[in-house]
TrEMBL record:
A family per Pfam: SpoIIE
Swiss-Prot/TrEMBL keywords: Hydrolase, Phosphoprotein
A GO molecular function held by the record: hydrolase activity
InterPro entries recorded: Bact_Sigma-Reg, CheY-like_superfamily, PPM-type-like_dom_sf, PPM-type_phosphatase-like_dom, Sig_transdc_resp-reg_receiver
Keyword Hydrolase carried by entry: yes
Ranges where the Response regulatory domain occurs: 9-122
EC number from the UniProt entry: 3.1.3.3
In-chain residues carrying the UniProt-annotated modification 4-aspartylphosphate: 58
Species, as recorded: Arthrobacter bambusae
UniProt superkingdom: Bacteria
Protein name from the UniProt record: Sigma-B regulation protein RsbU (Phosphoserine phosphatase)
CDD domains per the UniProt record, alphabetical: REC_OmpR (cd17574)
């Protein structure tokens, strides 16, 4: 008889209903049973009643502030406490006060980063041995892996003056990671996405995302195309109770202009030939979180020698901090001669023996001008 994994409880203490809903979705994807609390006092009681192992705690609450909630929790609970703040001055206070919190993250936050922080917290504790898998579960993972691999592009991008490569390394726990690209008359279109969840459900959602994004390829404006696609995708996500983070870009090869939309992904880096790497920030939440959401497009210019790197949260999870992640990704991009080699180096940042999630990378490099 196969034993069930232990149930983990989490409490979300947040007065903003939209943010609270997003936090609940993120935690449920990590297999927590989640209790919501709109203020500090009810949050303390929720932790007491559920014996929660994780608490996400907003600093600004309508009754008592998050720091006081943290102090009260530490009187009876050893739960991991992850504090959320929207103001820089509060970050200084959190750094300077020994209030018993385990970590903090500032708003607006990336769901990827939040999940990575939570995984890092729970790696500090001893975890029980994984239960044996039954044959039905194994069969589903195998079928999901086939679907997931089928989503990867079969064609190689051959753009004069560019070097484009992608790499994907699955784990045994199949998720919804995928990337897709195809050449156009002017350059290329690229989509990088992660449908939250595991197994066949996530793989099928990823397949839907890929198909829908390809269906809007002929829509001239990227923001119009993305709005149309996201509306279609959201209906499928609503039925599954899931959401998808996405990075979608269109490259005009002759000019180097890259138009892009980041919907909750937050793991794309622009690495210029000269100067520091820049993390491309999200334009809004993941697709499927809010009805009627609009994601504005942004642009950057890929000059000769510049590189765009997009990775999955499997790479972020392997790092202790966002700063370490950015530094090591930039180092990998600058140390290798080809995009294929950069992808290989990026996968090595998340060693296969310790990686808890799929590891995916895409690199778009504009080749330096040849000096005669």
């Amino acid at each position: 008889m196969v034993s069930s994994p232990p149930v983990r409880h989490a409490v979300v203490v947040e007065d903003d209903a939209d943010i609270r809903g997003l936090l609940v979705l993120v935690l449920e994807q990590l297999d927590f049973v989640v209790t919501e609390a709109p203020d500090g006092l009810s949050g303390v009681e929720a932790v007491r009643n559920t014996n929660a192992e994780l608490v996400t705690l907003d600093v600004n609450l309508p009754d008592i502030d998050g720091m006081e909630v943290c102090r009260r929790l530490r009187e009876f609970s050893d739960a991991y406490i992850l504090m959320l703040t929207a103001r820089a001055d509060e970050i200084d206070r959190l750094n300077g006060l020994d209030i018993g919190a385990d970590d903090y993250i500032n708003k607006p936050f990336s769901p990827k980063e939040l999940q990575a922080r939570i995984r890092a917290l729970f790696r500090r504790a001893r975890t029980p041995a994984a239960p044996a898998e039954d044959s039905r579960q194994t069969d589903e993972l195998e079928r999901a892996a086939v679907v997931q691999k089928s989503l990867l592009p079969r064609e190689t991008v051959r753009l004069e003056g560019y070097d484009v490569a992608g790499a994907f390394r699955p784990t045994r726990s199949v998720g919804g990671d995928f990337y897709d690209w195809y050449q156009t008359r002017d350059g290329m279109h690229l989509t990088f996405a992660d449908a939250m969840g595991k197994g066949m459900g996530a793989a099928l959602i990823a397949a839907t995302v890929r198909a829908v994004m390809r269906s809007v390829a002929d829509t001239p404006a990227i923001d119009t195309a993305f709005a149309s696609a996201s509306a279609t995708i959201t209906s499928d996500l609503d039925q599954s109770g899931s959401f998808a983070t996405m990075f979608h870009a269109r490259l005009d090869a002759s000019s180097g202009k890259l138009s892009y939309i980041d919907a909750g992904h937050g793991l794309a880096l622009y690495i210029p030939a000269e100067g520091a790497a820049q993390r491309l920030v999200s334009a809004g939440p993941p697709v499927g979180i809010l009805d009627g959401q609009h994601w504005p497009a942004a642009e950057l210019l890929l000059e000769p020698g510049d590189t765009l790197v997009i990775v999955s949260d499997g790479v972020l999870d392997a790092h202790a901090s966002l700063e370490d992640f950015i530094r090591n990704v930039e180092k990998a991009a600058r140390s290798e001669e080809t995009s294929d080699d950069v992808c290989a180096a990026l996968l090595e940042l998340a060693p296969v023996e310790t990686a808890e999630d799929d590891v995916t990378a895409v690199v778009v490099r504009r080749k330096p001008d040849v000096q005669h």
